[in-house]
Every structure is written in structure tokens, then in C-alpha cells.
């Protein structure tokens, strides 16, 4: 992604602050795990925070929704994030790689963006 894209995005948000994020040109997608273990996916102004949850043990491999690689249950983390503006009543559930940094290396920004938009805009 180049700088022009970011500038264009910022300019549109500055001129039209209410613009739907779905209509903005692609921005920088952040995907990281914080010190508390929460996983963040963010493309300003969209931002979701996912909390790791326990799932039933299973030996079946699962698909990481960020990097789209099939991983074993033991290297996966199941997370849930509160859908913004739902008053804490709606959640998005995801399967991700436990190793967020390695996953980020593989994950394509458009897949992360899709997770965010599915979680927030629909
Ligand atoms: Zn992954």
C-alpha cells in the first residue's frame, strides 16, 4: 500500500466525517495482540477487540480466518469480539492462529478488512 492511499482516506474523512467506512479507499490494517492477550483488528475508524475464549477440545484441524491457513486445534485460538454499537449484546466469533505475529505475516490485508467489515457493518 502506498502513502497516496492513506492521504486520500484521511482527506475524505476530514471533508466528510460521516462517510461510511465501506466507501473509503483501503487504509492501513493493523492486526496485533496486546499485553493482556486481546487481539485487535483495526482499520481506522473501524476497530474490533477480540477476547480469547475456551472451546470444546477437538482434534479436527481448523481454518484461521485471518491467514486462511489450516492449523491444528492446539495452535489455534478462539476469540470473540463485541460488535461496536451493539451495547455489548452481539458478538463476532473467530478462529485465529495462536501466534498472532506469524499469522500477521501471512494474512492479507483484504482478509483482515473483510473480518472487520463483516463484524461491524452488517
Ligand atoms: Zn492465521
Q: How would you describe what is shown here?
A:
The protein has 122 residues and is of the alpha+beta class. The protein has one domain. Helices cover 26% and strands 29% of the residues. It has three helices and seven strands. The strands form two sheets. It has a five-stranded antiparallel sheet with strand order 1-2-3-6-7. The radius of gyration is 15 Å and the shape is globular. The protein starts with a helix and ends with a helix. The model has no long low-confidence stretch (mean pLDDT 87). The chain binds zinc ion (ZN).
List keywords for this structure.
Elongation factor G-binding protein C-terminal treble-clef zinc-finger domain-containing protein, 122 residues, globular, 29% strand, alpha+beta, two-stranded antiparallel ribbon, five-stranded antiparallel sheet, binds zinc ion
State the gist of this model:
By secondary structure, the chain is an alpha+beta fold. It is built from 3 helices and 7 strands.
Question: Could you outline the blueprint of secondary structure elements for this entry?
Answer:
Elements: H1 3-15, E1 30-33, E2 39-43, E3 46-53, E4 62-63, E5 70-71, E6 76-82, E7 91-97, H2 100-106, H3 109-120
Antiparallel strand pairs: 1-2, 2-3, 3-6, 4-5, 6-7
The protein binds zinc ion.
Zinc ion binds at residues 64, 66-67, 69, 96-97, 103.
Query: Roughly how many Å apart are the termini?
Result: 26 Å
Q: Low-confidence parts, pLDDT < 50 over ≥5 residues?
A: none
Total number of beta strands: 7
The SSE string, one letter per element, is HEEEEEEEHH
Structural class: alpha+beta
Task: Give the count of structural domains.
Answer: 1
Strand order of the largest sheet: 1-2-3-6-7
Estimated helix fraction? 25-40%
Please report which band the strand proportion falls in: under 5%, 5-15%, 15-25%, 25-35%, 35-45% or over 45%: 25-35%
Counting DSSP H or I runs of 4 or more residues, the number of helices is 3
Organism: Marinithermus hydrothermalis (strain DSM 14884 / JCM 11576 / T1)
Protein name: Elongation factor G-binding protein C-terminal treble-clef zinc-finger domain-containing protein
Amino acid at each position: 500500500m502506498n502513502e497516496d492511499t492513506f492521504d486520500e482516506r484521511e482527506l475524505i474523512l476530514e471533508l466528510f466525517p460521516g462517510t461510511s467506512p465501506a466507501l473509503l479507499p483501503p487504509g492501513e490494517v493493523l492486526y496485533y495482540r496486546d499485553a493482556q492477550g486481546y487481539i485487535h483488528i483495526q482499520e481506522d475508524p473501524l476497530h474490533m477487540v477480540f477476547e480469547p475464549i475456551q472451546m470444546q477440545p477437538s482434534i479436527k484441524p481448523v481454518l484461521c480466518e485471518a491467514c486462511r491457513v489450516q492449523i491444528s486445534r492446539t495452535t489455534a485460538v478462539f476469540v470473540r469480539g463485541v460488535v461496536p454499537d451493539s451495547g455489548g449484546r452481539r458478538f463476532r466469533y473467530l478462529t485465529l492462529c495462536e501466534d498472532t505475529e506469524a499469522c500477521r505475516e501471512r494474512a492479507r490485508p483484504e482478509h483482515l478488512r473483510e473480518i472487520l467489515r463483516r463484524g461491524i457493518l452488517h
